[in-house]
Design goal:
Length: 543
Amino acid sequence: MHERRTAYLQGILGLWFAVALCLIVGVVPILAPRAPTGDDPGAISIDRALEHVDFIAGEPHVMGTSEIERVREYLVTSLIEHGLQPETMTIEAPDYFGSSGGTVDVIDVFVRIPGTEDDKAILLMAHYDTVPTTPGANDNSAAVAALLEVAGVLAAEPQPNDVIVLFTDGEEPTPRFGAWGFAEYHPWFDDVALAVNFEGISVAGPTILVEISGPKGELISRLANAVADPVAYSFMTQTADLIGGAATDFDVFRNRGVPGYNFTYMRGSSIYHTARDSIDNLNIDGLAHHGSLALGIAQNFGSLEMGESEGGDSVFFTIPFDLVVRYSTTGAIVSLLAASLLLAGVLWVRITRGTSARALLSGFGLVLLAACASVVVSTFLWIGVANLRPEMGPVESYIYLAALVGLAGSAWYLVQRRSAHRGSDAVGGLLIVWLTFALLVVSFAPAIGYLFVWPAIAMGIAEVTSAGSRSYGVRLIAVVLVALTTFIVLVPAIDIFFQLASPRPGNPGSEIPAAIAVPVLLAFLAFGLIATRVSEPAQPNSV
């Protein structure tokens, strides 16, 4: 008896070890690519980019001040050193940060690098002004430095398409004065066929696609083919659409119907608009990722002729090895039907094997109640922590996230204990909850619905292929299938929604503390799926 129990525990530990390895794989796509070393002639120079940031982010440089004039002169000089002929454009704007009723000059700096084939142009854009409270090493000197170096590479190696590099002034006030002025008054705006904006509001993380404008399916396919390290998720872009956009210069071009991308990095954004956004806290990997994406788009985008904007939202998400899974909303419906049929089949099998409808409904209610309780408790705990520790760094914040995920796991453990005493089918109830969320979310936000669809498909396949099997190998495969799929799909969503919920004391109102409900809910449901597979009886010595 003792030996059998030891073998059983060893088997369970082996399954949890496999789950841990799957988690590591799931985290890989949201890691920032490491900054290149050495002087690769086809890439930007990180050393020179760091010199740019060191100069630009020495002091806050607010529109209409002598400090921003110093930065502007530096930008013009740097572009001239690359053999380019930069231009400036001035508009008058309200003195947002100064005297009431006063005005200041807002001055954009831009340059056009002629292509070899097309008169239309790709616009690469970053703002070079800051708010008065920050030197802005990440917001937005890193992007400015990256584009300065990109301009140098493109000047030496002309591409088929014209490329306009635009450094806007006056981005920080809501009207986005510099971008608006360029779009309203400069004749080059009519030539812009693709607008790409770069931002950085944190100390770490990869550059992710936050917004997309235009024919989504075509734009995502082109992005995936043009760049080596895309980090793109349709749940993020649709969330941005639902909340009205990310409030950047990109708004100006999106609202005027120009196709394009809006990129940013956002992990550890408590430094946003504070004095801590300095060169000491620069996200070097994020800066390098900016440069890699900008160069990839400029060099490999291809023809700027694009199809008409599609109805609905395309589904896309990055998986390991820098691959982007992408399909249309029709594909979203097909995958939902597959998940529905699989889970319905599994539930039917459970009923034919003796599970009552009452047990299933009781399990459904118990799981849903526990999920809601986890979300409510975690949200209040997080709001309290965020108020007490508004300047938390990334490491500290992830400790809190781990605690909240642990709370969700504990809630699932209590569900299992309670269901055993009540005669409820917690596993069947969990499957009904998954299917319910999949149906609802795909119906109202198809670009987000895949978060629920693919784990459901994996669980359905695992249940169908391994139910009743006494083989440890079969159960290991089932656990890996469910855990790997769940982590690859859900870990980025848990991470990014956590960033949206993180405090930003330098810009109150830009965070959404209640968004913590999403990662906690996803963690609870994911823990249920994976723990269900692990806890199935297993015999390590069977074949």
